[in-house]
Each structure stands twice: as structure tokens, then as C-alpha cells.
Amino acid sequence: MKVSPSERHVQQLFKARYGIVLDKIDEHNGKGGRTSDFEYVLDGQRVFVCELKEFIDVPLTEEYGFSVDKLPSGVVRASKKHNATNRISDAIESGFAQLVKYPEPKILTILNRSRFMGLDDLEETYKGYRVLGIENGITHLDVYARRASEGKIKDMKKAIDLYIWIDTPRKEMPLSEDKVFFRTVSETGKRVRKEYFKNTVSVA
Question: pLDDT tens for residues 144-161?
């Protein structure tokens, strides 16, 4: 069965850090739509299913949508509208579609290689806002993400029991450099994290 480099990376990370052997689900047997990427089977019973989404890093070029300015000093400045919440909400939507058919606990794992995205973007997308600061007792919010959070993914985001966010610096870096964060949504997600992902960092 074909396994992508990113899928292999996550399989190796789960096994090395948590002792979890993720089995690739055969998509050819996924009738009625695509299957999730992985399942964890223990003593003949499926413990959970896991869908993987990846955000790659891209060159700072116009080809990838950046506005590039070459300053007289020789410095090259690249800018682009931050679209992390849109990308994450799309990942949640497509991930949900591949997880929802299973009765077992559902995990969405995000492998992040992008220097422009981070865990706070997942939180913003899930909650629908980002705290910009507090001034004179007034909390200032950026609510750009609310449209997606309370719109297309309103019910989907809560149907996924556990989110696992993996920041991985570069492809050639060892697994020990990966930073892994957990966002639990349901009581089922809390149980799975506590039982199978011990001594982990939980953000919710």
C-alpha cells in the first residue's frame, strides 16, 4: 500500500514518541467515499481513526501569490495576505468528511511545515476570534475567523474528538525536534489523549 513521506513521518513519530502503531487504511476498500488515512488497532479492536492534513512551506515568490519588492538597499521584501484560518477551516471540513463515517473516536492530525502558520491559527479558527490585546479593561478581538467557525465548520469542528498539531521544522530534521500539541474537544477526546498520548501538551 502506498504511503506518502508525510504519512510515514507521522507513523514514525507516533510509534517513537507514544508507542502507537498507525496502520494505513486501504482506500480501495472505502466504498461510498474516501476513507480516513489511519487506524489504530489494539487487541483486534479499532481504538481510533486518524486523518492527516499537511501545510507545506512555499518559496517567497510571486508564483506562490507573494507581492515581492526589491528595495534599493538590496533587501527583498515579500508579503501576502494571511489566509491561515481559511486553510485550516478547509482542512477541518475535508477531514470531517473522511472521519464522520466511523463510529470510533476521531482524530484530525495537522502536520505543519509552514513558517507562516502556527497553533494559534488553529485556536483562532476553532474559536472564531483572536485576542489582539486589552486596553483600559476592553478586550480587542479580531473576528475574521468567525464566519467559518460559526458557519461551515460550526458542527463539524465539534464532531472531531481530538486535534493533534505537529510543528516540524524541516524534512531532514530528526523526529525529536517535532513539537506536538493536543486540542481535546469531547470527553472521548480527553479519554483518548489521557490513555494513549501520555505526558503531552494540551491546549484545551
Answer: 788 889 889 999 999 999
Separation CA 199–CA 142 (nearest Å) = 33
Specify the pTM: 0.83
> Residue 101 contacts by C-beta under 8 Å, 6 or more apart in sequence?
32, 33, 35
Using the CB atoms, write b or e for 71-103: b if 16+ within 10 Å. eeeeeeeeeeeeebbebbbbbbeebbebbeebe
Closest residue by Cα to residue 8 from 73, 47, 52, 43? 52
Which is more confident, 134 or 191?
191
60's grid cell: 517567497
The residue extents of the domains of the chain are 5-202
What whole-number distance in Å separates Cα of residue 197 and Cα of residue 44? 20
127 vs 130: CA distance, rounded Å: 8
Confidence class for position 165, pLDDT limits 50, 70, 90? very high
Grid cell, residue 59, equals 518559496
End-to-end CA distance of the chain: 35
Q: What is the dihedral of CA 13, 188, 184, 11, to 10 degrees?
A: 10
More confident residue, 68 or 166: 166
How far is residue 16's CA from residue 12's CA, in Å, rounded to a whole number? Answer: 6
| Chain mean position to CA 176 | 19
pLDDT over 90, % of the chain: 54
Average pLDDT over residues 16-31: 81
